[in-house]
Amino acid sequence: MVFENDAFVVVAPYAARTPFETWIMPRRHAASFGDLDPSKEKPAFAEALQLTLKGLSEGLNDPPFNYYIHSAPLKAEVSDLYHWHLELIPKLSTAAGFELGTGIWINVVKPEDSAAFLRERIAKGVAQPA
Predict the structure, then answer these.
(1) Residue-number span of the structural domain to which 103 is assigned
(2) Is the pLDDT of residue 5 over 90?
(3) Are 63 and 92 in contact (CB under 8 A)?
(4) So what's the pLDDT on residue 27?
């Protein structure tokens, strides 16, 4: 666990594909990103995203990022089965022969180390919402 507020949790996932891969997940079950409550969940999501990005950016020398919002397809019958989330992937390494040839990712940072790194930055005030 990296960070939590009333509506979201930020985690360093087990078996992350890349160093410092981080997920932001809602506490309330929802299949779609579009199901966010505008008055309560959007500000909490913004806080979680801002703190996470600032912690990663300032702690890792401002790397570029990819992010993916995993959300259920429109009109899909998966609302009870799927839980949307956002994945942040700092671009710290490049896939090479092993990864490209096997589809197996090498990650040299344990998730507990990644989580501790980010928690420390948030706790020290390096990453505070604007």
Answers:
(1) 3-122
(2) yes
(3) yes
(4) 98
Type of residue numbered 101: G
In the chain, what are the helix, strand and coil shares in percent, each to the nearest 5?
30, 20, 50
For the segment 39-48, what is each residue's pLDDT rounded down to a tens digit?
999 999 999 9
The helix/strand count (H/E) of the chain reads as 3, 5
How many domains in the chain?
Answer: 1
Count CB atoms within 10 A of the CB of residue 52: 23
* Residue at 128 is within a domain: no
- How far apart, in whole angstroms, are the C-alpha atoms of residue 21 and residue 127? 17
Q: In what order do the strands lie in the sheet with 65-70?
A: 3-4, 8-11, 22-26, 85-90, 65-70
CB hemisphere CA count around 22 (13 angstroms): 30
